[in-house]
Design goal:
It is built from 5 helices and 4 strands; from the N terminus they run H-H-E-H-E-H-E-H-E. By secondary structure, the chain is of the alpha+beta class. It has one domain: Beta Polymerase, domain 2 (2-Layer Sandwich). Strands 3-2-1-4 form a 4-stranded mixed beta sheet. Helix 4 links the parallel strand 2 and strand 3.
């Protein structure tokens, strides 16, 4: 299991690949941001794209890049896809990495 700081550091280390996918920032939330991951945990991420770069291809490429870099499953969402009922729970523990 990786620590929150290790996950954030790995994402930062792959910023050039993520920029190429049009990513502006990534927020890590859930167990990965709280530091209570289990051996079966995935990494929950909120992806913000640069204007005009939010495409299906960029979303899939970003998710693939993160899974390869972290060597963990990634559950990715964009801000527009989050239910207003779930959003407050995500916002309370999200940790952002500026790309």
């Amino acid at each position: 299991m990786q620590t929150t700081d290790a996950i954030l550091s790995t994402i930062r280390a792959h910023s050039s690949q993520l920029q190429a996918c049009g990513v502006s920032r990534i927020g890590v939330f859930g167990s990965a941001s709280r530091g209570d991951m289990s051996p079966t945990s995935d990494v929950d991420v909120l992806i913000d794209f640069q204007e005009g770069k939010k495409t299906y291809k960029n979303f899939i490429s970003t998710t693939h890049t993160l899974e390869q870099a972290l060597q963990l499953p990634v559950d990715a969402v964009t801000a527009g896809s989050i239910s207003p009922y779930i959003k407050p729970y995500i916002e309370k523990d999200i940790r952002y990495v500026q790309i």
